[in-house]
Amino acid sequence: MSQPPSVQRTAICIDKVCKVYGPPDSGVVALHEVDLTIYDNEFFTLLGPSGCGKTTLLHLIAGFEDVTAGTIRLFGKDIVSLPPNKRPINTVFQHYALFPHMSVLENVAFGLKMKSVAADTAQARAQEMLELVQLQQFSHRMPNELSGGQQQRVAVARALAPHPKVLLLDEPLSALDLKLRQSMRDELKRIQKTTGITFIFVTHDQEEALTLSDRIAVIESGEIQQVAVPKELYEAPRNRFVAKFIGDVNLIDIEIDDMTDNGLVRVRTKSGDLIEAVPNGSGHKCGPGHVAIRPERLNVTRKGGDGILTGRVRELIYLGTDTQIIVETEGSYELTVRVQNAHQSHVDVSPGDIVHLRPDAGTVQLLAD
Amino acid sequence: MMAGHAEKLKKFPGFLTVTIGCLVLLYAPMIVISVYSFNATRSITKWGGFSLGWYAKVFANPEIQRATVNSLVIAVSASTLATLLALLAAIAMVRGRAFRGQEGVYVLINLPLLVPEIISAVGSLIFFLAIGISLGLMTVMIAHTIFCIPFAYLPISARLQGIEDHYEQAARDLYANAWQSFRYVLAPMMLPGIVSGYMLAFIISLDDFIITNMVAGPGATTLPLAIYGMVRIGFTPEINAISTLMLLASLVVVTLSYLIGRTKRN
């Protein structure tokens, strides 16, 4: 399911990496055996709530911290024993970490200077990078004379100047305000396409992850929950955590009934409705489980019947482009339905009405837990 | 009503009087000394007109010249050494891994601030005699270096604590080795703290009397010792002139140290 868009070279291979803070047997486990493959030229995102281990993983790749066990390979070469200055990987820090005593140009040229690149070549290359982030006219300013967004772009230029094989970005947009964040998003995507460098992007913002990434790894409690392209992550979440973390979702307790002829699984809700769900490939036994349905995948219909959920409208919430309908079912669980207001005819229900809800075919996802 | 209450709470009766009393006690002697250094007559209590004569005398006095050179040599070398040691200690304490007994080491570094100076002085003297170093410029330098360390350490470690380790991470990430990361990133960022600490150590060494008096051998007379010697012989406005000059030097260095120490702490 989580194949890359095309056959590509592996940029980074993370193999059974563990990170424990404190003594190995009694310390705090930040990462349990993590396996991850990131391809060349990919915009890859590590997504998860704060404290899930995503920044730890980034620090292990950059070399700021040592792995407790496991290996990290960069284009096939084991890099775990190398200090950060020996790894052809650069980082864009959350709070930029621009050197305050150096001009913008000196900041951008710093990595090249440390790599003993000739001064004039370094200057030219730094200037080129500043053009890439559209800050060429600011090269002689000091960092504290720039706005937050400009500082962020300098940080990107500085990290790109030494031609790293992989660029790490540690929540680079979190310190910016909303408008700026959106324009920086486009900017980052453009820079990644122009340079062709592999980007590993850390964020807790699911919308940011969905709009930017080629693939996303969802991390929680130091474990990878799912690795997939954005569409698959949203439409076919593997477990309850992923389903809830990405977008709004209806999670329904069900009993697995049996398989159908077309490869779907027939499940029964607590109110006795039978619906068909897409299995997630990890093999299901009969018994209790959960399915996920996105609110916009439920359609209000007049008739009940097979494959249809039934309940009573409790509340209508007007959201501008959409209307949200909260439906209470007999199984005492709630369903949220989202109807686009362009299709106004479908929303002529009022609180107290009995409604029938038909999920779009193939959008009920059976979860692994 | 409420406003009246708030006013009352903010008022401390007699506060102004006490403040003025303290200020007079602190600064009146210095003002008197400075004013009489410009006295045209020999008296240090009766004003006899303005003159720079005593200053001219000070600059021409060979004993004072020698003492000034000694004081500067000692202050420069002791504060340089003390700053260097304090810098290393600060990096180890602030950036190094936490270790057992770290608090104890902190106390040890700052101990000279707490120990009564006369005890340090006697201790140093006994120590130098015990290991057989003859008293001279060298012994003063060593003793000054030791008690200057905490004065250099405090501003340096305060500055270092204010610098997040992201900057060093960024430097290492951009291919700097440990030394380059210190040389190009950490040291320039710490510079105000280092200069501030250096100046503080310098002035502490320049002004010290008690320890110097104990461990200075022949030929190691510093300015404070020279002034003390002159006072014992007889008080003339020449002493006022030297004192005023030293006061001025201290004031300038301490002010600079303060101003530099607080720059760029944004």
Description:
The complex is a heterodimer of chains A (369) and B (266). Chain A is of the alpha+beta class. Chain A folds into two domains: 10-235, Rossmann fold (3-Layer(aba) Sandwich), CATH 3.40.50; 248-366, RNA polymerase II/Efflux pump adaptor protein, barrel-sandwich hybrid domain (OB fold (Dihydrolipoamide Acetyltransferase, E2P)). Chain A has helices spanning 54-62, 104-114, 119-132, 148-160, 178-195, 206-212, 230-235, 240-245, and strands spanning 10-21, 28-39, 43-47, 69-74, 77-78, 89-92, 166-170, 198-203, 215-220, 223-228, 250-259, 265-269, 274-277, 287-293, 298-301, 309-318, 322-329, 334-340, 354-359, 365-366. Chain A has a six-stranded mixed beta sheet with strand order 6-7-8-3-9-10, sandwiched between helices. A five-stranded antiparallel beta sheet of chain A has the order 13-12-11-14-20. A five-stranded antiparallel beta sheet of chain A has the order 15-19-16-17-18, with no helix packed on it. In chain A, a hairpin with a 3-residue loop joins strand 16 (309-318) and strand 17. The two termini of chain A are 18 Å apart. The model of chain A has no long low-confidence stretch (mean pLDDT 88). Chain B is an all-alpha fold and 266 residues long. Helices cover 78% and strands 0% of the residues of chain B. Chain B contains twelve helices and no strands. Chain B has helices spanning 2-10, 15-36, 53-60, 62-95, 102-114, 117-131, 137-161, 166-173, 178-207, 210-215, 223-233, 237-262. The longest helix of chain B is centred in the N-terminal third of the chain and has 34 residues, at 62-95. The relative contact order of chain B is 0.14. The chains are: A alpha+beta (369), B mainly alpha (266).
